[in-house]
Design a protein that fits this description.
alpha+beta; Nuclear transport factor 2 family protein; 33% helix; NTF2-like_dom_sf
């Protein structure tokens, strides 16, 4: 996980240092037939980063209902292990139980947000806006144990700017150890 984050951060730093001047930036390319087509991916509006930041603030404060306002009714919440929750109600029930009965406190820090618009999928990802998020989580559990780790989340937005897929990449072993009685 740390290597993945370091590779992504390295790429972002490299890309930031090699950005063309604004007048050179283009989001389209021309084909040999002279057609203009969009780039496979481009930066998306920063409003998606604010949605992500507000969501983490709500979740840290235990305001699950406020956090879920950004989700579509048919949202899917998935972990890197393949486990998932389907539907806003299932996500709400899970997180309300976690915040009330399992997690004593959450703190998110060192936040990095990258909103990206995928015009042409390069593998299985959906087209549209994705928010890539990296952050450090410090959690205290009802067991009295704590857990600290870096996490990554990828969130896809539907046409109404609601999150319809959230993929959470984390080390579940750290959480299991901290929640064991």
């Amino acid at each position: 996980m740390k290597q993945f984050i370091l590779v992504i951060v390295g790429f972002l730093l490299f890309a930031a240092c090699n950005n063309p001047k604004p007048e050179e930036t283009t989001t389209t390319s021309t084909t040999t037939e002279g057609e203009t087509k969009p780039q496979p991916a481009e930066f998306a509006d920063q409003k998606y980063a604010q949605i992500g930041k507000s969501g983490l603030e709500h979740l840290a404060a235990g305001h699950v209902d406020a956090w879920l306002e950004a989700f579509a009714d048919n949202a899917v919440y998935q972990w890197n292990t393949g486990d998932s929750l389907a539907g806003k109600k299932a996500i709400m029930d899970y997180w309300k139980d976690r915040r009330a009965n399992v997690i004593d406190s959450l703190k998110f820090s060192n936040l990095i947000f990258l909103p990206v618009k995928v015009n042409q999928p390069q593998s299985t990802e959906a087209t549209g806006v994705w928010l890539l998020c990296w952050y450090r989580v410090d959690a205290k559990y009802k067991t009295g144990k704590t857990m600290t780790q870096w996490m990554h989340m990828a969130q896809h937005f539907d046409a109404n700017d609601k999150i319809d897929r959230s993929i959470h990449y984390m080390d579940r072993a750290s959480v299991a150890a901290a929640t064991a009685k």
